[in-house]
Specification:
There is one protein chain. The protein is built from ten helices and five strands. It is elongated, with a radius of gyration of 22 Å. Helix 1 packs across helix 3, helix 4 runs parallel beside helix 7 and helix 7 packs parallel to helix 9. It has 205 residues and is mainly alpha-helical. The protein folds into two domains: 54 residues, Multidrug-efflux Transporter Regulator, Chain: A, Domain 2, CATH 1.10.1660; 134 residues, no CATH class. GO terms for molecular function: DNA binding; DNA-binding transcription factor activity.
């Protein structure tokens, strides 16, 4: 414990307090010896960084609990991972910075349920850099993250329906091997139709 506290730049008393608040996981025990590892040190450094950014210990505890019960990155990405989207590895403090203090356990749970977030050792993984950037931008524009995620759930339903429509159309006239080659056509149609739909919506009184 003394060695861990020294490496983390905190006192043993502070470390004990963090343990009591369950901000760090318990050590591995061998008899009367408690062993800490690099993940404990990374968590302590994360706590220090979040405190320096103005987060409260209560908020950090909630974030740590959600993080500890997150989905594994293997479940998130699946075999092979996304074919076009770029996953992003984040520390908990980087995730908190992206969402301006709205990285609450409820919002993290919603993002995990959508398949946006998973965990990989001491890091969080977001499945798509584009989705991360867009959702972060919306939050910084003043839209609550909970509402962004609720909208994403509705978008997911419509996107699944569009994907089903496109694959059904192609498979009526081509083979499954043609789907990857024709995939950009589906994306172009959706982007153009959404652009036209936004034009129509903005022209409404």
């Amino acid at each position: 414990m003394e060695e861990l506290a020294r490496l983390a730049g905190i006192t043993v008393r502070t470390l004990r307090f963090y343990r009591e608040r369950k901000l760090i996981p318990p050590p591995r025990r061998e008899g009367r010896i408690a062993w800490y590892d690099d993940q404990h040190l990374a968590r302590l450094r994360t706590i220090t960084a979040l405190l320096e950014r103005g987060h409260t210990l209560s908020g950090i505890a909630e974030l740590a609990e959600a993080f500890d019960h997150g989905r594994d990155v293997g479940d998130l990405l699946g075999v092979g991972g996304p074919t076009e989207e770029e996953p992003v590895h984040l520390t908990p403090e980087e995730l908190a910075d992206h969402f301006a203090g709205e990285a609450t356990p409820d919002n993290l749970a919603a993002a995990m349920e959508l398949g946006y977030l998973g965990t990989d050792g001491g890091e969080i993984v977001h499945v798509s850099r584009r989705l991360l950037d867009v959702s972060s931008a919306l939050v910084h524009e003043g839209i609550p993250l909970a509402e962004v995620l609720a909208a994403a759930q509705q978008v997911r339903i419509h996107a699944d329906a569009l994907a089903e429509l496109f694959t059904t159309l192609v498979l009526r006239h081509a083979s499954p091997e043609d789907l990857p080659r024709l995939r950009p056509l589906a994306r172009s149609v959706v982007e153009a139709e959404l652009s036209l739909a936004l034009d129509r919506r903005m022209r409404k009184p």
